[in-house]
Batch of 3 targets.
Target 1
Amino acid sequence: GDHGNALLSKFPIVAYENRDVSIDGHETRGLLHCTLRIPGREMPLHAICVHLGLKESHRLRQLELLGEVIRTHVPVDAPLLVAGDFNDWRCRAHATLERSTGLREVFVHANGRAAKTFPAHLPMLELDRIYVRNTKGDMPLPLPRDPWSRLSDHAPLAAEICI
């Protein structure tokens, strides 16, 4: 899409909005907010894909915008998944998102630290994240290095999320 975000789902996407969170004069960045209908569940799952800026000051503002979207468009008791490229090599987003939105990072919760995802061929930096709220039994899933390291400059993350 407009900001490099996509959500693939085996469940119906009943609503979506791509929000531009670019900072004037810099690279294009966005949040893709989708609402999914999960069979057998009354409450829909909200999923937000992110691609935040390279500069810390931009990321801080974009995290504020993400918090605003969550507070105004996601019911407080709805299951929520937020994932993508946070470009947060200093790991500052965890505390901000937990405090402002109640999100917890799946890999940090399970392993005590975020997964290293960049560069894909030899991951050294923790740039990509999976955050959740109102879910249970979240479990990071290991992925083989090949073929993923040839498909992107970021290693993918996967997790089993139960709602």
Target 2
Amino acid sequence: PENAPYDDQRVRNAVQLAVDNAVILELGYAGHGAVGENHHVGPMHPEYAELPKIARDTEKARSLLEEAGHSGTEFDLVSVSGDWRSNTSDAIAAQMRDAGFQVKRTVLPSESFWNNWTGYDFSTTNWGARPLGVQVLGLAYRSGEAWNESGHANPEFDAKLEEAVGTFDADKRRGMMSELQAMLQSSGAIVQPFWMNEFLHHVPAVKNYERHQFREIHLENVWIDA
């Protein structure tokens, strides 16, 4: 984050603490998912590490905002128009207002929003899943990456990520991921309210067919029960 007020970690952490991700999941996507933890790695990733839970704390959020000198600053939350993405953004804005933030909502049509999706100071974006946590972190949070919309840049994070990418065994990688997840979470780079459920329909005769998070089709372990 380069532009004020988002260049101040206290402000970014205040935004995180103002938002209850479980409530946003319920209001934004009718509860059809898993609560996110503000580090963009989830239980579906083989190297996911469980971190201590952080609860919403509006009093601490206000304190951090005042300490940073931004209690009167207006935050413009940008989103694409329509469906769950706009609803999710509305719910985030409402919780921020409830915590004492001044919040404006800018809603753009799809053709306008996606022309500049990495260029907004404060916006919501829907990300497609990736099979591995290191893939998500490499695409979205490594310094200088084209899709690094948050502007997250931390040489220590980059070095630890490089080590994790070079570690094939997920169990060995998990210790590194614990550090990476904690670093990203504490940086305040993102509020990630939830992971969306993926749904799959098939006739009962099809056995062992699972919905892949990246929508890949793996039939090597699937059979039809005659």
Target 3
Amino acid sequence: MPYANPEIKPFFSIVIPTRDRAFLLKDLIDSIVSQDFDDFEIIVADNSKEHLSQDLLVNYKNETRLHNVKTGNLNMADNWEIAINSASGKYLLLFSDKMILKQGSLKFLKEYINQNNPDCVTWNIDTYIDHNNIYFDKATIEKDKIISSDDLFRDILKADMFSFDCSAFHCNSAVSIEIINKIKSKTGRVCMQLNPDYTMSYQILMYISKIHKISKSLSVLRYQDFDSGYGNGSSFMKKTSQAKLFMND
């Protein structure tokens, strides 16, 4: 399903790599298409084995801003890469299917970018626990700030976990497509095999001089319960057997 007018590039390319989680995907797509802003495209790279995600996407067949890219049998990094390579907009937003975009976020983000012209802007993420029906607001910084990429890299290499909140990861960042293209021209791809999220973040840092960190939370990350999330991230933090298996793979 092509963008409404292929001659006009959308401002945001929102790419959503997903696999076998249609129940999460619906809430994310709905949170995007209901925004008070429409200058975007959505690219769903569906790597599912089951048919539920494709069945869901049929319901959006009249949504001309949505591209349904069916992949299948790919590892995570390759599916992310296909999603990114399909982007045609000015800024890339890579969203995990386990998140929801807050209302008004795209309009706010576009206004901030127009005023500041950043290569990369990041924001805070709230948390929602599905099974417990509990919502946590992420403590916001007092004001917007600009962080040197060199300083941020040093903090990350010191294993300062708070520094990761400022880096460009899925669910919390918008990155200029010009920066994405520079990365691809040098290394061939944005997401490497071991961990696409972290390798993408590190590569972005190496190609920009600073990150704009805004003081608002624009998205919500969902967890199943207090003990487990919808992915490998929480497992890594707890150093569980799941994390060890992921690293071995």
